[in-house]
Design a protein that fits this description.
Strand order of the largest sheet: 1-2-3-4-5-7-8-10
CATH class: Mainly Beta
Helix content: under 10%
Largest sheet: 8 strands, antiparallel, barrel
Order of helices and strands: EEEEEEEEEHE
Number of helices: 1
CATH architecture: Beta Barrel
Strand content: over 45%
Number of strands: 10
Number of domains: 1
């Protein structure tokens, strides 16, 4: 595929795995919630699948759109009280749109290395903000629409009929994604910031 990069636009698909967590910032004033001794996040593996549109800007630059991408992510939050423990599950099914700039090295035979970065907008199709909750039935929800940035690196490998690219990215949400509901499980937290480490396999024709 010696002339592959002379084509202006390419299409493909991506599959991948992810590990999601939430960064937890406790409230500065903990006195009203002093029964909460500790709060921590537990990570779980997830999966994702989506479409790629890649626009060739120059010898070493591409503009890449990943949309739609459906990602399944789970994160648990463990609460330790004075005499008990509680665990809440945050299960999300995101529809993502990623706009990325890709900088590539010069091609060496059938290989290029690259770095990539940009922005992501996500809508949680499985948002629990409207789910019933109580002090005995804890539900911690994230706002359904979030925005963030991502950076990563990968390797383009050219084959006879397609280009294959393994890639690792780190995603960090901008701002506070916590939905405050008035119960101690959310009110004892100032901010929740979802984060993701993602390993993807891209296939482009």
């Amino acid at each position: 595929m010696e002339q592959y990069d002379n084509k202006r636009i390419h299409f493909g698909f991506t599959i991948g795995t992810n590990t999601g967590r939430v960064r937890i910032d406790r409230r500065a004033d903990r006195a009203p919630f002093d029964t909460v001794k500790s709060i921590n996040s537990v990570t779980f593996p997830g999966i994702g699948l989506g479409a790629i549109t890649n626009l060739h800007l120059g010898q070493n630059w591409d503009l890449r759109l990943l949309f739609p991408v459906i990602s399944f992510v789970q994160r648990n939050i463990n609460y330790e009280f004075e005499n008990s423990k509680k665990t809440t599950q945050i299960e999300s099914a995101y529809c993502d749109a990623d706009m990325l700039i890709k900088f590539k090295s010069d091609r060496r035979k059938n290989v290029r290395v690259y770095v990539i970065g940009g922005m992501r907008a996500s809508y949680d199709l499985a948002s629990t903000v409207k789910q019933d909750r109580s002090i005995n039935k804890p539900v911690v929800s994230l706002v359904p629409i979030t925005f963030g940035y991502e950076v990563g690196f990968g390797l383009d490998m050219y084959f006879e009929y397609f280009k294959f690219s393994p890639e690792i990215k780190f995603y960090n949400t901008i701002g506070n994604s916590l939905y405050h509901d008035g119960y101690i499980y959310t009110e004892s937290i100032d901010r929740l910031v979802p984060q993701l480490i993602q390993f993807s396999l891209h296939f482009e024709g």
